[in-house]
């Protein structure tokens, strides 16, 4: 599975300016809704589902990265977006450091296999310091898409 198999490139937010963790999640869910990947009337419920997942433990996995995710019946296929917070945000990360890169995943409840494969794909790429450093420097959605493409093709090491 490649990143560009499920990341909605129209929903990428290269300069997220959230007031906090909840606002960051709400802005990323809104970007998916605005790109047509989520039904608008389900936006509050999806935000609530992601926040409920966060109550189980922060998805701030360290190294400036967070992967908030949920399963929700409002979607019929796995979808995701990327948000970059250049100033960093407190996400209650496992390492206590600010988050700069967020990848939000939403998948249908019955699609556990793809959900787990997507999380594995995201985690594998985000463990690559070079990839993360390039993402943190990206200024446009086009730059983010190109980095995702390069990661999928194994050109970032």
Q: What's the count of strands?
A: 5
Helical percentage: 40-55%
* Morphology: globular
Please outline the major beta sheet. Answer: 5 strands, mixed
Give average pLDDT, whole number. 94
Number of helices: 5
Provide the gyration radius in Å. Answer: 14 Å
Terminal Cα separation, in Å?
Answer: 18 Å
Low-confidence stretches: none
Write down the secondary-structure element order: HHEEEEEHHH
- Please state the structural category: alpha/beta
Query: Strand fraction band?
Result: 15-25%
What does this structure look like?
- It is a single chain.
- By secondary structure, the protein is of the alpha/beta class.
- Helix content is 41%, strand content 18%.
- The protein contains five helices and five strands.
- It has helices at 21-34, 43-56, 112-126, 129-137, 141-152; strands at 60-62, 65-66, 69-71, 79-89, 99-107.
- Strands 1, 2, 3, 4 and 5 form a five-stranded mixed β-sheet that branches.
- Strand 1 and strand 2 form a beta hairpin.
- The longest helix is centred in the C-terminal third of the chain and has 15 residues, at 112-126.
- The protein is globular.
- It starts with 20 loop residues before the first helix and ends in a 5-residue tail after the last helix.
- The relative contact order is 0.20.
- The model has no long low-confidence stretch (mean pLDDT 94).
Write a brief caption for the model.
Strands 1, 2, 3, 4 and 5 form a 5-stranded mixed β-sheet that branches. By secondary structure, the protein is an alpha/beta fold.
């Amino acid at each position: 599975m490649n990143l560009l198999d499920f990341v909605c490139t129209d929903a990428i937010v290269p300069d997220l300016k959230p007031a906090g963790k909840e606002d960051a999640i709400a802005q990323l869910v809104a970007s998916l809704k605005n790109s047509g990947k989520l039904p608008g009337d389900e936006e509050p419920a999806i935000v609530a589902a992601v926040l409920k997942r966060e109550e189980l433990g922060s998805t701030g996995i360290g190294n400036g990265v967070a992967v908030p995710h949920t399963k929700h019946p409002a979607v019929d296929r796995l979808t995701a977006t990327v948000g970059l917070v250049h100033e960093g945000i407190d996400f209650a990360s496992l390492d206590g450091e600010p988050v700069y890169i967020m990848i939000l995943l939403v998948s249908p409840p019955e699609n556990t296999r793809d959900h787990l494969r997507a999380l594995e794909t995201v985690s594998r790429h985000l463990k690559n310091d070079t990839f993360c450093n390039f993402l943190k420097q990206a200024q446009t959605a086009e730059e983010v898409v190109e980095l995702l493409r390069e990661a999928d093709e194994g050109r970032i090491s």
